[in-house]
Amino acid sequence: MKAFVAVTDNEWFRFLRSRAPLDEVNFWQPGGSRQFKTLSPGEPFLFKLHYPEHFITGGGFFAHASLLSSLIAWEAFGEKNGAGSLEEMRRRIEKYRRATADPHQDYTVGCIILLDPFFFDENDWIPPPNDFDKNIVQGKTYDLRSSTGKAVWDDVLLRLHGRRQERVGEPDRAPYGDPVLVRQRLGQGTFRVLITDIYERRCAVTGEKALPALDAAHIKPVSEEGRHRIDNGLLLRSDIHKLFDAGYVTVAPDYRFLASRKLKSDFDNGEEYLQLSGSKLWLPKRSEDRPNRQYLEWHADVVFRG
Questions:
Q1: 226-281 pLDDT tens trace
Q2: What band does 65 get if pLDDT is binned at 50, 70 and 90?
Q3: pLDDT, tens only, 29-42
Q4: Domain check: are 50 and 136 in the same one?
Q5: Separation of alpha carbons 65 and 63, rounded Å
Q6: What is the pLDDT averaged over residues 123-151?
Q7: Cα separation of 154 and 249, whole Å?
Q8: For residue 173, is it within any domain?
Q9: Peptide bond connecting 52 to the previous residue in cis, omega within 30 degrees of 0
Q10: Domain annotation covers residue 215
Q11: Contact 117, 24 (CB under 8 A)
Q12: Cβ contacts of 146 within 8 Å, gap of 6 or more
């Protein structure tokens, strides 16, 4: 098991601390040229503020990393990006890039998505290990089985003791302690980015790759006791997503796309969707990431207009 101690923007930290508790945050990196690959899902990611505030001040648990445009990151996480607006987020990107402001530029940023973030009060801030040099720019990895890594994590646990946030209906959430790689409960933004990446940024029905036109759709909505689970998601072009939610299209348990004849009778239209009816979906490579057949059966039985 590893932990990553990341050099953290002080404004980002204070903005999010003022809005805690939060279920997820996006720790974005302004360069946007390299995807973070240091941790596995569930491992700790700790915040170390810029010098002279040379302290570990909180953290979260790594869920996923991606490269996204600032607009898509903002649409997925909003203020959980650590800024009050997209314009403010763009100004920070430009400051770190030393770039001239360009309202037409949609910057790519590295997104490190964290679940269950925690933010310490100043009297609980932790001095970083002696080997964490003040000139480190991005961060440093620690093996939690080593004496240094274990000491850091023990200090974090001391401050987290008694602060576990219990939420209803989360049996897969582990208490704070020795970090273990358990299935994490996803937030809305994390769900969106994971579905986008797992489907390789293409619509499962049409193959469309224009990312702003794609939506991470729930098969069984949260309002119907569905959850932000990968196997409860599909990446769909926005028009197909709306028709899916309205019951004019569905996906059969054998992963065939089906369109209702009611498109024709209700709107005197729908030829494009009817032509796609019967086609097989493009699916993620891993079987465990593919739509759960029980969710598909629920949608076909309860929502689809037939």
A1: 999 999 999 999 999 999 999 999 999 999 999 999 999 999 999 999 999 999 99
A2: very high
A3: 999 889 999 999 99
A4: yes
A5: 7
A6: 95
A7: 52
A8: no
A9: yes
A10: yes
A11: yes
A12: none
Q: At 163, is the pLDDT very low, low, confident or very high (cuts 50, 70, 90)?
A: low
Residues 232 and 155 both lie in one domain: no
Q: In which region does residue 169 sit, left (phi positive, over 0), alpha (psi from -120 to 50) or beta (all else)?
A: left
C-alpha to C-alpha distance for 40 and 172, rounded to whole angstroms: 17
State the pLDDT at residue 272.
94
Instruction: Take residue 260 and report the two structure tokens written for it.
Output: 């209702």
CATH code of the domain in which 41 resides: 2.30.130.30
Question: Are residues 134 and 219 both part of a single domain?
Answer: no
Looking at the 3D structure of the chain, how many domains does it have?
2
Burial 254-277 (b: 16+ CB within 10 A, else e): ebebbbbeebeeeeeebeebbeeb
CA neighbor of 56 nearest in space, from 3, 93, 21, 8? 8
Domain residues for the domain of 136 are 2-160
Tokens representing 200?
């390789």
Residues 90 and 231 in one domain: no
Give 2-37 pLDDT, tens digit per residue: 999 999 999 999 999 999 999 999 999 999 889 999
Query: Does residue 179 carry a pLDDT above 60?
Result: no
Distances (CA, A) of 48 to 44, 143, 156, 278: 13, 17, 12, 53
Distance, in Å, from the CA atom of 176 to the CA atom of 156, rounded to the nearest integer, reads 10
Rounded distance between C-alpha atoms, residue 279 and residue 47, angstroms = 47
Q: Tell me the pTM.
A: 0.90
Give the pLDDT of residue 102: 86
Q: Which of 199, 201, 172, 184 is nearest to 45 (CA)?
A: 184
132 and 257 housed in the same domain: no
Contacts of 6 (CB under 8 A, 6+ apart): 27, 45, 46, 47, 48, 112, 138, 139
Q: Is residue 171 part of a domain?
A: no
| Tokens 């004496």 found at | 147
CB-based contacts of 150, cutoff 8 Å, min separation 6: 144
